[in-house]
Write a structure and sequence with these properties.
125 residues; 42% helix; 5 helices; globular
């Protein structure tokens, strides 16, 4: 969480995660008498930075649809098209793809702006 907060140039107010045990107690323990005294490390990190932590609803896979679509886009542009000789080569290609996507690719859903242009436009007065 420390690295994320340091890397993101704007305030993070909410994080949406799945319901895995790394983010939440098992359902039968979530509302028990000691639930308020237990805290997952991720929840404590969110609390430290005043970030709201929300969980996706169980059995609602469409909640993560946008993330899953982006993961598919990255896979189609990288591992499904190229064979990598090393992890370093793979990581360099991922970094290059994400930079090209954020700074060069114009998206219809962002009214023809690149993600970078859209964020700068939204945050400018």
């Amino acid at each position: 969480m420390d690295a994320l907060v340091a890397a993101v140039p704007h305030e993070i107010h909410t994080v949406l995660t799945g319901n895995g045990i790394q983010f939440a107690d098992i359902p039968r323990n979530r509302n028990g008498p000691t639930a308020r005294f237990r805290g997952r490390p991720f929840d404590r990190a969110c609390w430290r930075y005043d970030i709201a932590h929300r969980l996706t609803k169980p059995k609602h896979p469409w909640t993560n649809g946008q993330v899953e679509r982006m993961n598919r886009t990255i896979k189609e542009a990288t591992v499904k098209r190229y064979r990598y000789d090393s992890h370093d080569q793979f990581h360099r290609h991922i970094d290059d793809f994400v930079a090209a996507y954020n700074f060069a690719r114009r998206l219809k859903t962002l009214r023809g702006f690149t993600p970078y242009e859209f964020i700068c436009k939204v945050n400018s007065p």
